[in-house]
Amino acid sequence: MSAQGTAAVAGKTTGTPKGAWTVTFLLFLFMLVNFADKIVVGLAGVPIMADLNLQPEQFGLLGSSFFFLFSISAIVVGFIVNKVPTRWVLLALAVVWALAQFPMVGTVSFTTFLICRIVLGAGEGPAFSVAAHAIYKWFPDEKRTLPTAILSQGSAFGVILAVPALNWIIVNHSWHYAFGALGVVGLMWVCAWLAFGQEGPLEDTQALAATQPKIPYLRLLTSRTFLGCVIATFGAYWALSLGLTWFTPFIVKGLGFTQSQAGFVSILPWVFGATIVILTGWISQVMNARGYTTRISRGVLGSVPLIIGGLILATMPHVQGAGLQIALLVVGSGLCGAIYVVCPPMLGEFTPTSQRGAILAIYGALYTLSGIIAPNVMGAVIQRSGSMLDGYMTGFTINAAVMVGSGLLGLLLLWPNTERARLTGSAAPQAAPLKSAVSAT
Length: 441
Fold this sequence. Notes:
mainly alpha; 441 residues
């Protein structure tokens, strides 16, 4: 093993290498492009439905189609990055994203549109888990929460920055050109990554695989903290996938805003969510430094906002006024962001480095299954309701119930510090090397 690799296994004594924040910024931009690609269908939902003559259920299918291969791709690529440098995997994913956008520039059928979204989803499924795995090669465990929060904020800023620009293209030109613009931006990121992207020096995955003990995947996947992370983030992603697909159609068709106004209103949940995520990352890191267990500084800190957000969202159908309804939707769904910050570091606490890429990918593959379900459920509810607004309110009530239930289960199950002790203890007689390999907090 190299000296750098040995330093990584030493645990908390490892510092942050030069270039870590440059790579973090590039991966922030990576997630920015990722979420701009996701949001464009929802943002252009009304003109897309009009041009392609789609019913709500068909549009719900279009939103869900993005996730058809999302989970499968995430798992496959997760195992690949256990052996292949993340630098090249990230590059390949970004190329797929860019190329999948260009067919929508011209006249496109519903079937072609559907296929392109499926391909795009296959390319974007592994994105966050691979990016997190890449970042963790640059930061020791006790310093990972803040860069994870920054990485997560690529999603929010992907919406905050892209929505006004994309909406301007949609209003003044055509929704077709919005997809083309995203393809060009994706290729620009590919060029930047080729020039500046590097593999982290703190962990040599192949060397660690040869020296550190492994934990059977079944034990990792059935650990209560892994299950708690999946369940809690499943509820958060339900809200996120509805925001990606149905938020703009809701404020245009349900509340009567114009498409131009929708460009501003649509960024509000992401601005609030970005604030929550950055605060969560900072607070969690401060709590870790002050000696709180990761059960508190990560598990409780991530799951309680999910419960509160669901309760806030549940009041939405019972108030009057578009402004107040939007405020409740923004705050309720925005609080979900806390869970994305804390779960990857919690999984990293007890997962051997040589297995971490796969575990993060399987985690992502499972919780994003709500992205298949939620848009379809909303579309079906709207189509079967007496009025469109009633349908939306019923859909958001279902969302609230999912958030509260998943948050409560997360609160019960997230015990990463206990998990680490149990799993590393089962790895005897090589428990000591494993403890250092997972860099105990």
